[in-house]
Design goal:
- This protein is mainly alpha-helical.
- It is about 70% helix and about 0% strand.
- It is built from 4 helices and no strands.
- It is elongated, with a radius of gyration of 20 Å.
């Protein structure tokens, strides 16, 4: 029995990290984990668009500083807003996925804003990166 308990202690963190089948997720932990995976993907994409925006505009230090300041303000806003969503649903198990989904939506919107403002041109010149979500 002691060996089984030790094995469970060793394997439990690995089980938590195992990706669930998100097409068939029905338990709250699996749904939350799938939502977190989706958020992670959205955050990676936003980070890529942010980095390319900064690189593309590196010739203008004032603009780069302004983009960084806006990103910091956006991070604060997104965190506060999605925390309020978590608070609104605090009595239910749905609170986690609601907050994570909030952050995913805002992250995708921010990524599109970065693309539209800093990686596209007013004429027919191809954008620096493809429109987010349309690759």
């Amino acid at each position: 029995m002691k060996g089984s308990f030790f094995l469970l202690l060793v394997l439990f963190p690995v089980l938590l990290l195992a990706e669930p089948d998100c097409d068939k997720a029905i338990s709250t932990p699996d749904i939350n984990r799938c939502a977190a995976i989706e958020l992670d993907t959205a955050e990676q994409e936003m980070q890529r668009y942010l980095e390319v925006s900064l690189e593309h505009n590196a010739h203008d230090a004032e603009l780069v500083a302004s983009i960084e300041q806006a990103q910091d303000a956006w991070q604060a806003y997104a965190g506060a807003h999605c925390d309020s969503i978590h608070t609104m649903w605090r009595e239910g198990t749905i609170r986690g996925v609601m907050a994570i989904s909030c952050r995913t939506r805002l992250t995708r919107t921010r990524t599109h804003e970065l693309w539209s403002a800093f990686l596209t041109y007013m004429d027919s010149t191809e954008p620096v990166l493809p429109e987010p979500g349309k690759q």
